[in-house]
Specification:
This protein is mostly helical and 254 residues long. The protein is built from 13 helices and no strands. Helix content is 68%, strand content 0%. This is Molecular chaperone DjlA.
């Protein structure tokens, strides 16, 4: 258990407990012989004793490991939403973790992920834990990553979209933000406007105002606290905003 819990504990805060912590404990027990749920609970108790309590007035500052564990748990829910676990989706998760974390950390994370997938998890309970401890910008990034997983098998089925929509609701992501991120993964007419959260009928000045607003909302600097490893996804999301704006400008001759 030693090296694995050392890896976990190094970057975990709020996800070491609650329903996410329970999923982690189950996952470890699924591949670590002789490890019991009680042992993981003791690890949690020991960790909480060492952890400094967060003041209600403190700024939410999500640790890299917390974001990582939240991704693993939510991804396992989305992957199973269409009734099967597609190998291409698993490969996408693995490739994303390799690009973000490097080989050793990605191998640990994916080993954990394969255990988490086996457990039935309440999306609502997990999302309550996340939204109470994670910034709005970080929650938007989670939704972006989940759509990437759903699209990994080249076809997003309705069950996956509905599951991500349900998760977004639990995370207090509003409908406009959800539709904006969703549109980043489709090449359909009018999607550039959806990404900027405006209608086709708006004026050029309104397009510019919408663009400036979205730049502020999705700027990668808002996710600096998650560590450099998570900025790649943030930059991809930000680039979608740039591309949408350029497409509208070209269409209108702005």
């Amino acid at each position: 258990m030693g090296n694995f819990t050392k890896w976990l504990g190094a970057g975990l805060g709020f996800t070491f407990g609650g329903p996410i912590g329970a999923a982690i404990g189950f996952a470890i027990g699924s591949f670590l012989d002789g490890f019991s749920e009680d042992e993981f609970k003791q690890e949690q108790i020991d960790y909480k004793r060492k952890k400094k309590p967060r003041n209600r007035k403190d700024t939410v500052n999500t640790q890299s490991g917390d974001f990582e564990m939240s991704l693993l748990v939510l991804a396992s829910i989305v992957i199973k939403s269409d009734g099967k676990v597609d190998q291409r989706e698993l490969d996408f998760v693995r490739s994303q973790f390799l690009s973000m974390y490097g080989k050793q950390r990605a191998n640990n994370a994916f080993k954990l992920f394969k255990g988490i997938v086996k457990k039935q998890i309440s999306a609502r309970q997990v999302c309550i834990q996340i939204r109470e401890n994670m910034s709005h910008a970080s929650r938007l990034q989670l939704i972006h990553f989940l759509f990437g997983i759903a699209k990994a098998d080249e076809f997003v089925v309705e069950a996956e979209v509905e599951e991500i929509k349900k998760i977004a609701g639990y995370l207090y992501i509003n409908q406009n933000d959800f539709e904006s991120i969703k549109a980043m993964f489709y090449d359909a007419s009018g999607n550039a406007y959806k990404i900027l959260e405006i209608e086709k009928t708006v004026s050029d000045d309104e397009v510019k105002r919408a663009y400036r607003k979205m730049v502020k909302k999705y700027h990668p600097d808002k996710l600096r606290d998650l560590g450099e490893e998570h900025l790649k996804g943030a930059k991809a999301k930000f680039q979608s905003i740039q591309d949408a704006y350029e497409k509208i400008k070209n269409e209108r001759g702005m």
